[in-house]
Amino acid sequence: MRIIEQLPEFKKLATEAIDRVSKAHEATLNSIDHGADQAHQGFAEWRRALIAMLDDPSLTLDDKFRITSEIGDTVKAQASLIAEGNKVKAALFLQAVLGVVGVLGIIIVAIAGGKFAIEQDSDNA
Asked: How far apart are the first and last CA of the chain?
C-alpha cells in the first residue's frame, strides 16, 4: 500500500478495482441469500402442511410416525441447504480476496517495474 500511496492515480485505480470487486461480491451474496430465503419459506410451508396432517384423527400411529419422519427429513434437507450455502459463500469470499490481491499485485508490479525502469534509465544516463 505504501508504494501505491506514492502515486495517486494508481491508488485511485486500486481503490476503484477493490470497490468493484466488493460490490460484485455483495451482489452475489444478496442473490444467494434471496434464493435461500425462498427455499427456507418452502421448507417452512412443507413442515406446516405435514404438522397439520398430524391432527387428522383417522391417522394410525404408523402414519403419524411416517409424517414425523418426513418432518425430520425436511429439517435435514434444510440443514444441508444451509451448509452448501455456507460453502458457496466461503468459496466466493476466497475468490474475492484473491481477486483483490491479484489487482493489488498487478498494480504493485507495474509501479515497481516502472520505478525500476526509471532508476535504470537514470543509472545509464
From this structure: 30
pLDDT at residue number 18: 79
What's the CA gap between 89 and 98, in Å, rounded? Answer: 14
The domain total for the chain is 1
- Please state, in angstroms and rounded to a whole number, the distance separating the CA atoms of residues 22 and 15: 10
- Residue range of the domain that includes 57: 2-124
Grid coordinates representing 59 are 391417522
Residues of the chain with pLDDT below 70 are 1-8, 111, 113-125
DSSP state letters, 27-78: HHHHHHHHHHHHHHHHHHHHHHHHHHHTT-TT--HHHHHHHHHHHHHHHHHH
C-beta pairs of 14-19 under 8 Å, 24+ apart in sequence? 14/103, 14/104, 14/107, 17/100, 17/103, 17/107, 18/100, 18/103, 18/104
